[in-house]
Specification:
Elements (H helix, E strand, L loop, with lengths): L7 H4 L3 H5 L9 H16 L8 H7 L35 H4 L7 E2 L9 E2 L4 E3 L5 E4 L16 H25 L2 E3 L7 E2 L18 E3 L3 H14 L2 H10 L9 H20 L8 H7 L3
Antiparallel strand pairs: 1-2, 3-4, 5-6, 5-7
Length: 286
């Protein structure tokens, strides 16, 4: 029976009690799927190459992002990406897929005062995902700069919102929460075993991995960068043979200014780079 803040024993009910409750007690279907059904299915599918726990969870109607972990099939790779015949490099993915799990940049229009909406990026799109105008116009009322009096004020708003969101992401990374990759365990801790990534829960043989990893943080930075890269947005639309409206010059300049700022943050991250002096450290200087 679903309940917040209670143990599994407190939520348990005899089947007859549930049957005779006149639908007042409802079975927690998601719990049974994630804790009772998914783990044995994952173990049964382990010999099948290209199968991941996230894929199996998705087929069961669960949120696949909660079950990200090593590949179920294959067993020899830590990530399993090279064993998946459908594997696509991040740089080749569509933005909707690549940035599906990032924390979205939200903004509210100062004129229509509607609820915060997701910032669309360079181009605002209609329901058919066709570009219909600049992303600096409010999607609700069409007000330029989302109701800000000028481009400078809009720049400051976007910069502040993005900075706050980035700090939240960095905090999540440096908090270093670890989660067990065994869905039947569900352990979450900030403690690290002296035996490496072994789960600390008694009787569990799962492995601990970061809940918010350096890859997640890097993907977040690339998401911010993609929002304001006008040339990239136009190139991707041209590759799909889609027409796109002309953006006012002042909008292009604002996009360029923010993109340069975000690109600087992304380039300062050592995640995607190898410092040249590492080779002299490893092999020695001549």
């Amino acid at each position: 029976v679903p309940s917040v803040g209670c143990s599994v024993a407190d939520q348990a009910r005899h089947p007859n009690v549930v049957t005779n409750s006149n639908s007042q007690l409802k079975v927690d279907i998601e719990w049974y799927l994630s804790q009772q059904i998914l783990p044995p299915i994952a173990r049964l599918c382990e010999p099948i190459e290209g199968t991941s726990q996230g894929q199996l969870a998705s087929q069961l109607g669960l949120d696949a992002s909660k079950f990200r972990g090593p590949q179920v099939g294959g067993g020899s790779s830590s990530t399993g990406d090279d064993l998946d015949p459908a594997f696509t490099p991040l740089s080749k993915m569509e933005d909707a897929e690549r940035f599906r799990d990032v924390r979205k940049l939200q903004l509210a229009c100062l004129k229509c005062k509607e609820e915060e909406a997701e910032f669309p990026g360079v181009y605002m799109r209609d329901q058919a995902q066709q570009p219909v105008g600049s992303g600096l116009n409010c999607p609700k009322c069409g007000e330029e700069f989302w109701g800000a009096p000028n481009a400078g004020a809009c720049f400051s708003r976007l910069h502040n919102r993005m900075t706050l969101l980035l700090r939240q992401c960095q905090q999540s990374y440096y908090d270093c929460w670890l989660v067990c990759e065994d869905s039947s365990c569900g352990a979450r801790t900030q403690q690290q075993s002296v035996r490496g990534p072994c789960c600390l829960a008694r009787g569990c043989r799962g492995r601990l991995s970061q809940e918010y990893s350096e890859q997640d943080l890097h993907t977040q930075l690339k998401y911010f960068e993609s929002l304001f890269d006008a040339k990239r947005a136009q190139r991707m639309l041209a590759e799909k043979s889609l027409n796109f409206p002309e953006i006012p010059k002042k909008h292009v300049e604002l996009f360029k200014a923010i993109k340069q700022m975000v690109a600087k943050d992304a380039e300062s991250s050592a995640y995607n780079w190898i410092q040249p002096d590492i080779w002299s450290t490893v092999f020695g200087k001549k």
